[in-house]
Amino acid sequence: MSKTILVVDDSSSFRTVVKLALQKAGYTVIEAGDGKDASAKLNGQKINLIVCDVNMPNMDGLSFLRHVKTQAAYKFTPVIMLTTESQEAKKAEGRAAGARAWITKPFQPSQLVDAVNRLCV
User: Fold this and answer.
1) Cα–Cα distance list, 87 to 43, 52, 61, 92, 104 (Å)
2) Parts of the chain with a pLDDT under 70
3) Which CATH class is domain 4-119?
4) Global confidence as pTM
């Protein structure tokens, strides 16, 4: 059975790039446009991993990450932050909130797939 990845980014073209790379690697992908949209998709369905941007409208990635970690069904779901943010302070904030990996845009799709393969259980 294929694993399900939730991709959260406010850029639809960026979500498409990520989705294609993950689907090619055999994953099922659910898309969300921001943290609020993504929160609505945490409805009890099995999500094996979340790939999330930091800077988004309505609910940013770090707020969404903190929200995910309060949900019993998703508290142990690994989260990879995929963002233009590269400051150590942001990365530290992400780690403190529960991010398992931090990939800076622009990125190589193979780099993302490698991280997903490592963390997706």
Assistant:
1) 32, 17, 15, 9, 10
2) 121
3) alpha beta
4) 0.97
